Amino acid sequence: QSVLTQPPSASETPGQRVTISCSGTSSNIGNNTVNWYQQLPGMAPRLLIYDNNQRPSGLPDRFSGSKSGTSASLAISGLQSEDEADYYCASWDDSVNGWVFGGGTKVTVL
Amino acid sequence: DVQLVESGGGSVQPGGSLRLSCEASGFIFGAYWMHWVRQIPGKGLEWVSRIDGDGTTTNYADSVRGRVTISRDNVKDTLYLEMNSLRDEDTAVYYCARSRFDFWGQGAVVTVAS
């Protein structure tokens, strides 16, 4: 049972937009920033979004993040086949004094 | 280019010990917090531990506290994870990651089984 709650799966057709939610509490998302990671099959995770909505240099602007209260979301627009992957949110948690991850969302491009 | 390369994974019996290493290059190692994150095959990511740049501050997940020690050698640009009293449930791929998890190693496989 992950501290941050994500839907287990999401799917959309190529070119469309998919949004992934990440729900937490006041001790994590509510009081700290959120990062998002993409993990392609058999690969290490890759940072997509940090500090709620910042993209690392070189990352396409098809990926965007937002946060409101104790929830955050990742949006992927112009969905492409190479976006098929698992996506994880993460945040620092003040009550456990550690980082917590969501359970991951598997994105399928139909 | 930033590179993180883990080593030291392997198979160990329950109750055994293992030390993982993560050799860093391409950045000023001592300037960054470093983490260990693990992933049970087919499952999600679980943060294990972190250490600050000079090695004076450490944090651990409840699931490993008391059995695991994180440390670093800023001369060798290497991060370590000493794991003791290993359990079946510690079987996972162990990744080292930098700071805000902006760079990750390729992972080291740890299997705990009799």
Tertiary shape of chain B:
globular
Strand order of the largest sheet of chain B: 2-10-9-4-5-6
Helix content of chain A: under 10%
Most extensive chain interface and residues per partner: A-B, 22 and 21 residues
- Spans of chain B of at least 5 consecutive residues whose pLDDT stays below 50 are none
Which quaternary structure do these chains form?
A: heterodimer
Number of strands of chain A: 9
Strand content of chain A: over 45%
Specify the structural class of chain B. mainly beta
The residue ranges of chain A in which pLDDT falls below 50 over 5 or more consecutive positions are none
3D shape of chain A = globular
- Helix fraction of chain B, binned, reads under 10%
Overall pLDDT level of chain A: 96
Outline the secondary-structure elements:
The complex is a heterodimer of chains A (110) and B (114).
Chain A: E1 9-12, E2 18-23, E3 34-39, E4 46-49, E5 63-68, E6 71-76, E7 85-93, E8 98-101, E9 105-109
Parallel strand pairs in A: 1-9
Antiparallel strand pairs in A: 2-6, 3-4, 3-7, 5-6, 7-8, 7-9
Chain B: E1 3-7, E2 10-12, E3 18-25, E4 34-39, E5 45-51, E6 58-60, E7 68-73, E8 78-83, E9 92-98, E10 108-112
Parallel strand pairs in B: 2-10
Antiparallel strand pairs in B: 1-3, 3-8, 4-5, 4-9, 5-6, 7-8, 9-10
Report on this model:
The complex is a heterodimer of chains A (110) and B (114). Chain A is mainly β. Chain A is built from no helices and nine strands. Chain A has strands at residues 9-12, 18-23, 34-39, 46-49, 63-68, 71-76, 85-93, 98-101, 105-109. In chain A, strands 1, 3, 4, 7, 8 and 9 form a six-stranded mixed β-sheet that branches. A three-stranded antiparallel β-sheet of chain A has the order 2-6-5, with no helix packed on it. Chain A is globular. Chain B has 114 residues and is mostly beta strands. In chain B, 0% of the residues lie in helices and 49% in strands. Chain B has strands at residues 3-7, 10-12, 18-25, 34-39, 45-51, 58-60, 68-73, 78-83, 92-98, 108-112. In chain B, the strands form two sheets. Chain B has a six-stranded mixed β-sheet with strand order 2-10-9-4-5-6, with no helix packed on it. In chain B, strands 1-3-8-7 form a four-stranded antiparallel β-sheet, with no helix packed on it. The mean pLDDT of chain B is 97. The chains are: A mainly beta (110), B mainly beta (114).
